[in-house]
């Protein structure tokens, strides 16, 4: 008979780390938006290139946020399942 050797605490730590990562990505996205807004006086072609590049970077930074947020409740459900499994005595 095999047993599950997974620690729900580790799953919850991963979930907490993902939450931190989401917050950091959101903060980075905010910094990008500030940088774009502070460059509006730069009206030549280089300024527009800069803003477009910053918008692309902002989209790339923010694109994984939804995936990470969606994963968090799934990880909690997994941790709860492991809690239940580990509480069963054979």
Plain-language structure description:
The protein has a domain at 13-72. It is 79% helix and 0% strand. The chain is built from three helices and no strands. The longest helix has 30 residues, at 8-37. The N and C termini lie close together (11 Å).
N-to-C order of helices and strands: HHH
Q: How much of the residues is beta strand, in percent?
A: under 5%
The DSSP helix count reads 3
Provide the residue-averaged pLDDT: 92
| Class inferred from helices and paired strands | mainly alpha
What is the straight-line distance between the termini? 11 Å
Write a concise synopsis of the structure shown.
By secondary structure, this protein is mainly α. Helix content is 79%, strand content 0%. The model has no long low-confidence stretch (mean pLDDT 92).
Give me some keywords for this one:
0% strand, 3 helices, rod-shaped, mainly alpha, 90 residues
Topology:
Layout: H1 8-37, H2 45-62, H3 65-87
Helix pairs in contact: 1-2, 1-3
